[in-house]
Inverse folding.
């Protein structure tokens, strides 16, 4: 269970409150107008933005002050998810051991993870030699290896075409179901939310609301969301 | 932190020693005041002449396209690492008593001109800084968006209107920085003054320190002069900090589209531009050509003493390069977040090698024989003087690196030595190689602190060349100059290439 306990985030004039709970294994979309603070909220959970007040807890344990690499989560950003100068093998190895050193067992695990996302045999390639979709898959493979219970997605598939994007969302859903991962995804596209996330957190007007059922929320949106959706 | 402390200890420690010994400025003589005046005057004159002459050259390079243009622009970067003593040798070959210019003037009954004295110091400074100024102004030109030139063309502008509406505003913003940058460089000029200056009318403060130290052995006066030198540098740096100094290394190649003929003018302007480029190219290439023309055949019979000196110079160059990087990289990494680190990295700009040398001598004299200090001091001052350049080169690249990958590295817990090995060094391979090349070339060509400490037997290659010139063995000197030139550029090229090669992209 991920708990945001009376959390307040500030950045200059910007201010966002969040006081909510997300069940273990839930898949939750963060939706709201641009500039509402969806990515900011994700940054705070990932440990890049210290909150002005409040706590972040995972399974009852306070992780508010933990450094990003020691939190029980993996994050995929919009871009720069791989080090372009390192081979996929080394990029993925960093998910197993931040010192980048690996043994034969690790190597086998990396091969398996790459195969799981459909990149078998590409260990020696560098990110530049992959397509955008393949790069996303490699990033996802690394989160598989890290095996952290929470996965944060900050619009990592936004640059992909519609077909590739739904393919990636399906892959994430499949893996999350297998591993029991709790997923939080920022998205601009309500269809992404419907596809991957049974629940949705509405972020609007300085407030992150408690999770609601995605379908009913999108079918009958409150005013703040309706303006954004434009329907 | 450690790197900053080490650097500060060297710069501030020697400065403290100098200050204590100076005991106020009582040691100064009338001639020293003349040296201060000359230092300021020649720096201002050199900077002014360089900037004024650079304008037509930069304009011509900007609006003309010709075979070899790219090569010429690259060559404009070369004086930056050219050993001063080699350039001086080349300038003497061209402008000296038996030089090409006087040989050409003699048939017309014109009295021979002299390269020695104030005019020689200024000619040498213009030789070094005209290319620098040209690159900075050209950079300003290329920073004007192409759209603005297209707009100018659609509005029916000719070259005169381009001058008024585009060129002048650009020059107004670029020239003060260019002037200050060159002024600063010329303030601490030692090797040029040592070889071409001297006497009551062409002695810089740096040269006066050397003379007080070596000839009069008046340490109080040397220390007072060193203090004056630091005060001048600090004052100039404070002024410069208010103006934004343009990057000395900037000047991309052909970033702008092809020039628009309507804006570039007719035949008269083509002729003028051609003349500007030809004169600049001849002025810059002739001295180097003269060194090689006389020196390459002489490479075979260099005196024995050249070889140990060469080895010494190479070892010092490589060692001081390593020290430079070991100090500059941690400082540059810290400097993007903490102001103190950048200030620490810029500290050596306030001191010169002679100031540090004088200070180190004062500290060490009670304990060791100063001659034993010659090579270690050369090593340390060369390393320290390259730190500001290396830091300035690394910082923008580090900012990009941090913006791109800090969050990813943090989310993976990548830090410490693993981060250095897997992220920092691979991503910075190119600027590290470039910095290493500059540091090695500076050190290889340096003729500074070694002149203070050398007993005449311990020598670097530039000092050996200086001694050969002093004893008028000009063919051997030309050979040594060629050797020094080749080795300096080879070192720069090899290290810069190594950076490109190590870049995993």
């Amino acid at each position: 269970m991920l708990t945001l306990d009376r959390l307040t985030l500030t950045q200059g004039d910007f201010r966002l409150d969040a006081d909510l709970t997300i069940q273990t294994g839930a898949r939750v979309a963060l939706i709201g107008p641009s500039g509402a603070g969806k990515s900011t909220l994700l940054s705070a959970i990932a440990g890049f933005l210290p909150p002005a007040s409040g706590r972040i807890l995972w399974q009852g344990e306070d992780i508010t002050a933990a450094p990003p690499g020691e939190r029980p989560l993996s994050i995929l950003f919009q871009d720069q998810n791989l080090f372009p100068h390192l081979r996929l093998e080394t990029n993925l190895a960093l998910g197993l051991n931040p010192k980048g050193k690996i043994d034969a067992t690790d190597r086998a695990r990396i091969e398996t993870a790459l195969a799981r996302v459909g990149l078998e045999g590409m260990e020696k390639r560098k990110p530049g030699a992959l397509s955008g979709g393949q790069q996303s898959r490699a990033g996802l493979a690394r989160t598989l290896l890290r095996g952290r219970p929470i996965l944060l997605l900050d619009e990592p598939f936004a640059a992909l075409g519609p077909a590739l994007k739904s393919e990636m969302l399906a892959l994430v859903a499949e893996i999350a179901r297998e591993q029991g991962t709790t997923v939080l995804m920022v998205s601009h596209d309500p269809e992404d939310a419907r596809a991957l996330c049974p629940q949705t957190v509405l972020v609007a007007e300085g407030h992150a609301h408690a999770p609601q059922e995605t379908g009913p929320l999108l079918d009958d949106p409150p005013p703040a969301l309706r303006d954004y959706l434009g329907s | 932190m450690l790197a900053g402390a080490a650097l500060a200890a060297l710069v501030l420690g020697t400065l403290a020693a100098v200050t204590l010994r100076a005991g106020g400025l009582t040691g100064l003589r009338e001639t020293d005041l003349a040296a201060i005046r000359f230092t300021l005057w020649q720096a201002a004159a050199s900077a002014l002449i360089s900037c004024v002459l650079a304008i037509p050259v930069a304009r011509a390079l900007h609006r003309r396209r010709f075979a070899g243009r790219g090569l010429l622009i690259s060559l404009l970067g070369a004086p930056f690492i050219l050993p001063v003593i080699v350039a001086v040798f080349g300038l003497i070959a061209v402008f000296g008593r038996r030089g090409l210019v006087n040989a050409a003037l003699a048939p017309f009954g014109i009295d021979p001109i002299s390269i020695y004295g104030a005019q020689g110091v200024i000619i040498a400074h213009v030789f070094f800084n005209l290319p620098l100024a040209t690159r900075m102004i050209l950079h300003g030109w290329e920073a004007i968006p192409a759209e603005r030139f297209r707009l100018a063309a659609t509005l029916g502008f000719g070259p005169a209107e381009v001058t008024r509406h585009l060129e002048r505003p650009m020059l107004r913003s670029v020239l003060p920085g260019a002037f200050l940058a060159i002024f600063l460089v010329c303030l601490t000029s030692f090797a040029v003054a040592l070889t071409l200056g001297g006497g009551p009318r062409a002695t810089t403060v740096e040269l006066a320190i050397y003379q007080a130290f070596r000839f009069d052995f008046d340490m109080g006066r040397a220390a007072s002069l060193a203090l004056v030198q630091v005060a001048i540098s600090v004052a100039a740096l404070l002024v410069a900090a208010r103006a934004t100094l343009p990057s000395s290394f900037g000047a991309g190649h052909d970033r702008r589209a092809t020039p628009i003929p309507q804006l570039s003018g007719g035949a008269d302007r083509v002729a003028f531009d051609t003349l500007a480029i030809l004169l600049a190219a001849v002025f810059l290439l002739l001295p180097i050509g003269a060194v090689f023309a006389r020196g390459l055949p002489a490479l075979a019979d260099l005196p024995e003493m050249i070889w140990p000196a060469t080895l010494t110079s190479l070892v010092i160059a490589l060692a001081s390069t390593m020290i430079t990087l070991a100090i500059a990289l941690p400082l540059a990494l810290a400097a993007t977040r903490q102001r103190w680190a950048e200030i620490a990295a810029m500290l050596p700009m306030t001191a010169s090698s002679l100031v540090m040398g004088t200070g180190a001598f004062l500290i060490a004299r009670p304990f060791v024989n100063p001659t034993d200090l010659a090579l270690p001091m050369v090593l340390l001052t060369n390393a320290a003087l390259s730190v500001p350049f290396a830091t300035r080169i690394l910082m923008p690249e580090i900012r990009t690196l941090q913006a791109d990958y800090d969050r990813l590295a943090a989310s993976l817990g990548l830090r410490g030595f693993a981060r250095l090995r897997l992220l920092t060094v691979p991503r910075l391979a190119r600027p590290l190689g470039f910095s290493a090349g500059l540091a090695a070339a500076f050190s290889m060509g340096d003729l500074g602190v070694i002149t203070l400490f050398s007993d005449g037997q311990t020598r670097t290659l530039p000092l050996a060349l200086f001694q050969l010139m002093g004893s008028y063995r000009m063919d051997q000197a030309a050979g040594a100059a060629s050797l020094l030139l080749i080795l300096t550029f080879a070192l720069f090229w090899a290290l810069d290439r190594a950076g490109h090669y190590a870049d995993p992209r």
Notes: The radius of gyration of chain A is 18 Å. Chain A touches chain B at residues 46-48, 67-70, 74-75, 77, 80-81, 83-86, 90, 94-95, 98-100, 126, 128, 146 (CB under 8 Å). Residues 200 and 212 of chain A are 5 Å apart (CA to CA). The longest helix of chain A spans residues 162-179.
